[in-house]
Design a protein that fits this description.
The chain is of the alpha+beta class. It contains 11 helices and 8 strands.
């Protein structure tokens, strides 16, 4: 887990969906668990989580967010599911999904979809958080920085999208990051300054835990320099052609500005934590 897109040996697996093991309850996007075979290696895995490209409020833009978000998270050493591409064939739709929940979604999503390798043994975030563990506090701070960096509007106290596995804090669900893309009339030309985002992040589930500590934010924001030209070259190399759009340029432009002003960005985050 946590293979980086910038690793020389990195490969984005393309999985051919073979079997349906049912919808995961509680997910806004109605993700499906499937078995599939890796087109390149022939290896079969019984546990992938599939997100449809054209159903349950998801679009190709949502899947771009999921994939780029996973790559950024892993580049920052945040633990999340290993991303894969899952191909839905007409045969899978008619022979496997016919008469099943999700048939309509599958029929509308023939082709390449986003998926991750299923992570077993996840524990609820609130039941496991140890505010006195420096390693956990560091992971929490890195996720908080990540969420502010990518403008994540989908990690609240009622829906943290956070889990534990042993001593690792796991971050999931990134289809709603880059929320600035949906703001037509309100633009922040200086995204390293938090400004109007304060209310959003005041409700972040990790903020109360960070306030009880005095973490060094700069240790985390320094890692943002990894989101550099080489990273974006790798993204462009692996991102499915049909998912590429003007959004990718807008995302890179905004994140480049934050990286160029990371010291001020760190001060802004420190102010939020210490206020």
């Amino acid at each position: 887990m946590n293979k980086k897109v910038t690793d020389p040996e990195y490969r984005l697996p393309v999985i051919e969906a073979l079997a349906n093991y049912g919808t995961i309850s509680g997910g806004r996007s109605m993700p499906l668990t499937v078995a599939g075979v890796d087109r390149n290696t022939g290896h079969r895995n019984e546990h992938y989580v599939l997100k449809w490209q054209n159903a349950h409020q998801l679009t190709k833009a949502s899947l771009l967010n999921e994939l780029v978000g996973a790559w950024i998270a892993k580049e920052l050493d945040i633990t999340c599911g290993d991303p894969v591409l899952i191909n839905i064939s007409p045969d899978f739709v008619e022979k496997v999904m016919a008469g099943q929940e999700g048939y309509k979604a599958a029929k509308e999503s023939i082709g390449i979809n986003f998926g991750t390798v299923f992570i077993s043994g996840l524990q609820p975030f609130y039941n496991q958080f140890k505010a006195d563990d420096p390693n956990i506090v560091y992971q929490a701070l890195m996720i908080f920085v990540f969420d502010m960096f990518v403008d994540n509007a989908d990690r609240g106290q009622g829906k943290p999208n956070l889990f534990f596995k042993k001593e690792n804090l796991i971050a999931l669900d990134h289809e709603l990051i880059f929320s600035f893309l949906s703001l037509i009339f309100i633009k922040n030309d200086e995204p390293w300054l938090v400004r109007g985002d304060l209310e959003l992040y005041s409700k972040h589930p990790l903020l109360p835990f960070l306030k009880t500590n005095t973490p060094d934010v700069s240790v985390c924001t320094e890692k943002l320099t990894r989101i550099n030209d080489n990273f974006w070259d790798c993204v462009n190399n692996w991102l499915p052609q049909e998912w590429k759009s003007e959004n990718l340029h807008k995302i890179r432009k905004r994140l480049d500005l934050i990286v160029s002003n990371k010291d001020i960005f760190a001060e802004q985050i420190s102010q939020i934590i210490n206020s």
